[in-house]
């Protein structure tokens, strides 16, 4: 296997999970556990695909996907933040709604091909032998995802708004006592997480496959949730986790294509087994960095 | 200015009203959705909720289907509800359901073509054990290492689906199937065929077990000390520990029960309505059962009713697909919305709504 092609394909295969996991990390940093990532991703996948096919522009597709999933995530936000519903149950509900909604919207788009995405050659860097084709000849979303990682990292570490978001996630009672709008901050985080999941989903249907089939995200949203735990709620950890996972996926697909003497089913289940394995190792070592108020409803009772 | 005031105790009245309110809201929003799809909304709602039971032409076919579809849903949801009460989120019932079916079918096929009357009970036990064992993976990981059971049980669904694919394509494939994937057909093997017990009712052994499970769960939760311990763990984990409840034991108990029931449901399905192990014999009952458990308020009798209602939407959905050309996926969305509206209206169960004029410090 050509190592240049291998690295390039790992980047493509990691991008959807990177986007979704990054968004979910911000949501969890604000103290909200949204288990609906899978539902938002699949909604993004179908809306992005439909918009891109209808307009012929992948950029419009990505924007539409981000918007649709973000709006969908606000339904979760309204239920958990305003109506104070259980976050685990509501997140599951969001996934079920998203799966149904996407199947309904996507019925007319099966078998259609997505408009092609041009490769963006980074001037100068793309010409470097070996390294150029590996890292600098991708579609624009790969760069967007990497910029988002850097942006989220800087936002959480250096900005006042980032500090407030973390405070709300660590201890919502104290944050409320200090006068921060807990519910508003959380709704904003949920909106951002939804948009990221939508982008990730659209990347699956527009670049990775690129087609629409029902249920095509195949658990990527759940894997994104696991990666947030793996990353100990740090942006760099999310990046590493997503790329490791992308590596495993590419490797097993290549083994399948090469006709390795391992049953196909064993290879197909390997990403999920490895996710479990990673979760086990993380929990054996002790989970660190979980926000203090993660998953707890906030009700200002004064 | 609207304010929420926490009730000291969940309202009993609203506990019963909210599922009904959720159904009505789903009908209204579903009707709007059908209208947007260019279908007559009232007719669509009637086709889904009324025609399967009372249509002069189709009802005789669809009425028995009600129990066929409700059986596995109730059986799985009863198990899940016990765990949910204790705050143990097993959302991988679909995987336990598949593994129960595969294990039970494998044990049965090992004795092909035996006509022994003991074989079917043996398969049921094997099915329950298969589902139980699959649920023990998240249970062991949770109790020994503290691994999150939500993610592990869900990941295991995808693993189980791949095991199912391999069973149907290779190691359980029928030798007489001309190389097509799929196991031997249990419907052509009278000793193990889980047939209707009373003709044209849809009543098979799985439905009987579902009814037994409803009663057993009621007794467990309302009358037995373990049921009390389970509820205590869910509502006040610290108090539970002080009163001597071992959290690990509750995890094993809850995941074990739900895994075994899901596994049994799988076995009953594969030997009955589905008839054989195929790559897609599982029809997502494990996920829909989550909705059933919540809609039934985690209460055994509630789950019985919710299971019947959800089965009705399945059959009504198929009917609407046939008669009105409604897309099959709209029913899935319909069921998801039902859960959403239930969770939304639950605010009335736990909170009192107060209308106050502005807020004075």
TrEMBL record, chain A:
Location relative to the cell: Cell membrane
Membrane topology: Multi-pass membrane protein
Domain of life of the native organism: Bacteria
Keyword Transmembrane helix assigned: yes
Name of the protein described by the UniProt record: ABC transporter permease
Gene Ontology CC annotations of this record: plasma membrane
Entry's transmembrane regions: 6-23, 35-53, 59-79, 91-109, 140-156, 187-206, 269-287
Protein keywords: Cell membrane, Membrane, Transmembrane, Transmembrane helix
Keyword Membrane among record annotations: yes
GO molecular function, one term: transmembrane transporter activity
PANTHER family to which the protein is assigned, alphabetical: ABC TRANSPORTER PERMEASE PROTEIN, SUGAR ABC TRANSPORTER INTEGRAL MEMBRANE PROTEIN-RELATED
Organism: Alloyangia mangrovi
UniProtKB/TrEMBL annotation, chain B:
Membrane disposition: Multi-pass membrane protein
Transmembrane portions of the chain: 12-37, 66-84, 96-112, 118-141, 150-172, 202-221, 250-268, 329-348
Coiled-coil portions: none
GO molecular-function terms, A-Z: transmembrane transporter activity
Superkingdom of source: Bacteria
Annotated compartments: Cell membrane
Keyword Transmembrane helix tagged: yes
Gene Ontology CC annotations of this record: plasma membrane
InterPro entries: ABC_transp_permease
Swiss-Prot/TrEMBL keywords: Cell membrane, Membrane, Transmembrane, Transmembrane helix
PANTHER family the record matches: ABC TRANSPORTER, PERMEASE PROTEIN, GUANOSINE ABC TRANSPORTER PERMEASE PROTEIN NUPP
Protein name: ABC transporter permease
Species in which this protein is naturally found: Alloyangia mangrovi
Taxonomic path: Bacteria, Pseudomonadati, Pseudomonadota, Alphaproteobacteria, Rhodobacterales
